[in-house]
Task: inverse folding
């Protein structure tokens, strides 16, 4: 049986009121690290069940859309971008502007 990865919680994940909202995974090989993180904005339960060909329980996950139902995805992206840019002095002049809403970033 294969469970949707957002249903499995580890110490690297962020939960809100006991439900997972941000997942993180890491793969290491030959001195390289691949880091991946996901913030669940929303989901389509029917689509997940269709993809995995089994019932998907969402009892242990939540979404940004459930927590902040009046905030659009675009507003949320702008808030995250603004927060990250406020941290920019800590990250050696890395320019993140425009990344979060771009087609390449969201594809």
Result:
């Amino acid at each position: 049986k294969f469970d949707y990865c957002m249903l499995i919680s580890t110490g690297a994940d962020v939960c809100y009121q006991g439900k997972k909202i941000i997942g993180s995974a890491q793969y290491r090989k030959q001195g390289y690290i691949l880091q991946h993180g996901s913030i669940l904005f929303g989901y389509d339960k029917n689509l997940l069940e269709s993809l995995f060909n089994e019932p998907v329980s969402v009892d242990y996950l939540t979404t940004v859309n459930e927590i902040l139902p009046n905030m659009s995805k675009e507003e949320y992206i702008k808030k995250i971008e603004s927060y990250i840019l406020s941290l920019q002095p800590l990250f050696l002049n890395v320019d993140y502007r425009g990344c979060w809403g771009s087609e390449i970033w969201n594809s």
